[in-house]
Amino acid sequence: MEGTKTNKIRYLSIGLFVIVIAIMPLVARSRYYVTIGNFIGIYGIVAMGLALLIGYAGQVSMAQAAFYGIGAYTSAILTTQVGLNPWLTMVAGAILSAGVAGIIGVPLLKLEGHVLAVATLALSIVVSTFFVELRPLTGGYDGIGGIPRLSVGGFMLKADFHYYYLIWAFLFFLFILSHNIVHSRVGRALRSIHRFSGGSEMGAESLGISPTKYKVQIFMLSAAYASIAGSLYAHWVTFINPDPFGIFISILMLIMVTIGGMGSLWGAIIGSCLVFLSGELFREMVPRLIPGASGEMEMIAYGLILILILLFMPRGLVSAPALFKSWAAKATRKASG
Amino acid sequence: MANAEQNSVAVHAQQKIRPSGSDSLELREVSKAFGGLIAVHQVSFVIHPGEIVALIGPNGSGKTTIFNLISGFLSPTHGEIWFEERNLKGLPAHRITSLGIGRTFQNLQVFTNMSVVENVMAGRHLRSKAGLLRTAFRLPPTQVEEKGIFEAALGKLAMVGLETESFTPPLSLPYGKQKLLEIARALATEPKLLLMDEPAGGLSTQEIEDLARLICLIQDRGITVLLVEHRMELAMGIADRVVVLNFGEKIAEGTPDEVQANEQVITAYLGEEF
Amino acid sequence: MTSFDQLLQFIIGGVSTGSIYVIVGLGFMIIYSVTRVVNFAQGEFVMLGAMLTVSFYKAGSPLGIAILISIAFTTLIGILFYQTIIYPIRGAPAFALILVTFGASIVIRGVALLIWGTGPKHLPYFSRTNPIQISGAILNPQALWVMVTTAVMAIGLFLFFRYTVLGKAFMASAIDAFLASLMGIKTERMGLLAFGLSACLAALAGSVMAPFTFPSTSIGLYLSVKGFTAALIGGLNRIEGVIVGGLALGVLEALGAGFLSSGYKDAIALTILLIVLTFRRHGLLGGAEAGQV
To answer: In this predicted complex, what is the ipTM?
Structure first.
C-alpha cells in the first residue's frame, strides 16, 4: 500500500540499526558502554509503551516508573522468596502491572486527559510508598538482593553483554509487536480516537469503536512493557531498592517520549538514547563547570528541554525532517520572490 | 422551492419499494433540556423499516439534537427511544452503532490521520474481531480478516463512487467527496438504519442529484434512512414521509405533498427558502 | 491523653493541614476553570512563596514586608509563566499542557534547589502566643493563622466572583469562554488573572504555613497532588466543594497517619484521590454532561 521506495529506505535503516546494535559491544569492548547500552535498551522498552499511550490514546501517564518497579519487585520477590522460574516471574509481573493499569484505567480513562496524569502521579507516589513500607516483602530501603539470573536453554546469562543482547532482543521483539498493532484493526481504532492527530472520538463511536476500551488496552499494554523492562533490570543487576522507581524516572520517560516524538516507536528509542547519553554527559561535565551542582542542574535542564520541545517541536525529533523540509521550502520561497 | 429540481430528484426515487410493517425506530415523547433551554419537547414519531424519512424544520428546531439523542451522544431528559423493540436508554453511542444504527455528521468527522480506504476500513470495526494480542502477533487468521476488511471497504467506496481515491489523504479531497467518504464509512458498519445529518450541505445541484440516487440505492439495499436536511429538493424529492419540527416540537408529519400543503409548516418557514 | 483528646488532636492537625490543601486547591480551581489547564506547578508556587519569605526575612526585612515582597515576586512569576509558556500553546491538546506545567514545576524546583538547597527552613511565628489548649488537645496558634487566612481567602474569592465586575467576567469565562469572548470579555486577560491570582494565593499560603511546617524545596509535588485532590472533590468549580475536599483530605490523612503508620500518610491521600476519581462519572466539572455536541 505504500511506495516501495520508502519501504526500501525503511528496511535499510532498520537493518543498519540492527547491525550497529549487534556489533556495538564487540567494537566498544568496554563494560561502561555495554552498561549504557543496557540502560538505553531498558528505558527504550518503557518509552515505547509510553509513546504508544501518548501517541495513540492521547493520555499522559506519570506512572511508568511504578509499573517498572512492580515488574522488578515481582521478579525479585517471586524468585528469591518463592523460588519461581525467573521467566515466569516476568510474566507474572506483566500481568500484575497490566491488571493494576486496567483497574485504575477503566474508570479514569472515561474522563478527560488530565485525569490520568494526576491519577498516575498519585499512583506513582503510592507505589513508591509501598516499596518502602512493606518491609517484610520488599526489604524497605535495603531492597532485595541475590536475585537469580535468567537462563536461556541451559545457558545462564551472567555477563553484562549477555543482558545487552537479551534486552535489545526484547526491544526489537516488542517493537515488532507494537508495529503490528499500529498497522492493524486495533491501530486504526486507536488512530480514529486520537483527536490531536486528526481522529475524532465522535466519528469513532459512530463506527462502534469504544474510545475507553482502547485507551484502557493501550494503557495496560504500556504498563506491561514497563513491567517487562523492570524484570529484565532486576535479573541483570541482581539487586534492587526503591530508588530507581520513583517519580524522577517517570519524568525521564516522559521527556524521552516527548523529545523523540509521541506516538513514534522510533522516537521512543531515539529519545531514550539521547536522554540517557546526555544525562551521562551532564553528570560528567557539569560538576567541572559549576562546582558542587549536579542533580539540580540536570533537573532544570530536563524541565527546560520539555518545555522548549513542547513549545517549538511538539511532534518531537522524528518530525524534524518534515519540519526542516517545510522550513526550507518557506525559506526558498522568500528568497525567490 | 424549485419544483423542477424536486421532480428530477423524484424521478430517481420512482422505483422505490414502499414497505409497511413493524416499527424500526420509535421516539416516545422525547424531550431534551439543556439547563433552562428546551431543545426538544415531547417529540414522538415512528420510522418503518425500509423507509426514507426526512426530518425538516427551520434552524434551531432541534433536528440535530434529535439525531444526537438517537445515536447516543446525548441522553433524553424525558421520554424513550426504541429501536427494533429495544430501549436505547442509557446506551453509549458505540453500543447503539452495534445495534445497527449508523450515522454521518453535519460537521464532517472524517479521520484525517488515515487514508480514504483506511477510514472505511475503520468502519468495518464491528464486522471484524482481531484484538490486541492477535494483531500483535500477526496470526494468520488476522491476516485473512484484514484482507476481507480491505475488500469490503473497497466495495463500499465503489458504491459511493470513490474507489479511485482509495489511497488519497482525505483532506486533499473536495468537500463533496469527503461527505461521500463519510457515507461509505457509515455503510461499512452494515447499518439497518442510517442517520444522515445534512448530507447535502455545501453540495452543488449536480452533486445533490447524485446524492439522491445514492440514497435511493441505499434504500434498495434494505437500509432504512432518516435524514435531516435543509435542501428541500432533496428532502421532499426522495422521502417517503416527512416529519417537521419547529422550536423543538413536532408540528406536522406525512407524505411530502401533505406536509407541503400544511398551514403550520408554511407559516414556520415563512421567510425561509422553501 | 484520653482517646477523645487524641482524636481531637488528629482532627485539629487535620484541619490545619487541610486548610493548606484548600488554598492550593482553590488555586487549581481558579486556573482550571478558566484555562482548562491543570497547573502542576501550583505546589511549587506555594514552595516559592515560603522560600522567598524566609529569605527576605533573613535578609533583614520585617516579617510583614517579607511576605508582601514574596507574594509580589511569586505573582510575577505566575504571570510570566502564563505569558511566555501557557498562552502561546493554549490551543494544544491536554497532554501537552500537562507536560508543560510539569516541566515548569521541575524547572522551578531545580532552581529552588540551587538557591536554597534541601534543608528545612525556619520562619518565626506570626504572633507570640502560647499553644492554645482545647480540652486535652493542643492547637498551634500558627495553625490558627492558616485557618483564618484560608477562610478569609475563600470568602474573599466568593465575594469577588459574585459581586465585582471583574469577578463576574471571570465566572463567565469559566462557564463558556466562547460566549464570554462574544460578549467582549478578553479571555487572555482572564487567563492572566487566573494565573496571577493563583500564584498570589499560593505564595500567601506558603508564607503562612512556613513557621510550623518547616518547608523545604521538595514540598511542591505533594502539595500539588493533594491540592488537586481537594479541588477535584469539589468538582473543580465550586469553592464550597474545594473547602470540603481539602478539609476532609487533611482530616482523613491525619486520622490515617495516627491510627495506621505515618509512612502511609501520603498513600492515604492519594488512594482517596483514586477512589474519588473512580466514582466521578461526569467529567472533571461536576454536573457537566459528557459528550455534548
So the answer is: 0.84
